[in-house]
Specification:
Layout lengths: L5 H15 L5 H6 L5 E8 L3 E2 L3 H11 L4 E4 L6 E2 L4 E8 H32 L5 E3 L9 H10 L13 E3 L1 H7 L2 H11 L5 E5 L2 H9 L4 E5 L3 H11 L4 E5 L7 H5 L5 E3 L2 H4 L6 E8 L1
Parallel strand pairs: 6-11, 7-8, 8-9, 9-10, 10-11
Antiparallel strand pairs: 1-5, 1-12, 2-4, 3-5
Length: 281
């Protein structure tokens, strides 16, 4: 669980268990005897990239810290159909109480990591870095951006608080690109400024202002090619908007510095993982 704040993990898991468990599993307590022991394995039902094992560990710790948790595979491992990810042993009621929450986290985060890895595999040969975005589920950003990193992407920015990115609404509210950049550089002189541009004309303005990084918003691959030629190495180029696995190579072959992809977090399908519990004793 590198680069994840443990306090944040604990808080997210606590909220998730409060939704589903609240210290009581009516069905499990009605059907399973209190002294029944069990063992459970999480198994992959399709290929992908594993992510969220440490989150699952925290789920079972909060449900019952006497459960024995065996991490059989680590985050970042490429799964095949049938891969056994982890094993939990102990009171069967407790295993059942944590099952859905743990598997939900594993499926969601592994889905992000798996989709991200597919984008990275296409862009990598062109020397292009895939970035994630702020298009995350509220309250889960740290985890979702960790999953994107696990899949091979680089985090763009964690939030509004740690980077200057002047977008279309900022420009319109400031009364123009020049005014927006001037205010940003005056108020945060040590901070790099990135500017989103919507046209070749705005790109020219950004270059005249000496901006070090420009985001080409919803440009076609042909427009990206023309923009990169115009920039001529004077600024880093980020491409964003409308990039899919199907057209990624068209963009990547133009060799922008970065391609940012919102669908890594907002549209990644869950990876098919399942937990099977068996009785012991």
């Amino acid at each position: 669980m590198t680069n994840l704040d443990q306090a944040e993990i604990e808080a997210v898991v606590e909220r998730a268990l409060a939704e589903d468990y609240q210290g009581q599993d009516l069905t499990g307590e009605a059907v399973v005897e209190a002294d029944q022991r069990g063992s459970a394995e999480v198994i992959a039902r399709e290929p992908g990239v594993l992510c969220g094992v440490g989150i699952a560990r925290e789920v079972f710790r909060q449900v019952d810290d006497s459960l024995v948790f065996d991490e059989l595979l680590q985050d970042g491992v490429r799964l095949v159909d049938g891969s056994v990810v982890l094993r939990v042993t102990g009171q069967a009621r407790a295993i059942l109480a944590g099952e859905r929450t743990a598997v939900n986290f594993l499926q969601h985060l592994s889905g992000i990591a798996s989709l991200t890895a597919r984008f990275v595999r296409v862009a990598g040969p062109f020397g292009v870095t895939i970035l994630d975005t702020r298009k995350t589920l509220p309250g889960l950003r740290q985890l979702e951006k960790y999953a994107a990193r696990t899949g091979g992407a680089r985090n763009h920015r964690m939030g509004l608080f740690d980077a200057l990115l002047i977008k279309d609404n900022h420009v319109d509210l400031a009364g123009g690109l020049g005014a927006a950049v001037a205010r940003a550089t005056t108020r945060h002189p040590a901070q790099e400024v990135e500017v989103e541009v919507r046209s070749q004309a705005e790109l020219g303005q950004a270059l005249d202002l000496g901006v070090g990084r420009v985001l080409l918003d919803n440009f076609t691959p042909q427009e990206v090619r023309a923009a990169i030629a115009r920039v001529g190495g004077r600024a880093e180029i980020e491409v964003s908007g409308g990039v899919t696995l199907e057209n990624l190579a068209e963009y990547a072959q133009e060799h922008p510095t970065f391609i940012s992809v919102g669908r890594l977090t907002h549209s990644a399908p869950a990876l098919d993982l399942a937990m099977k519990v068996v009785a012991l004793g």
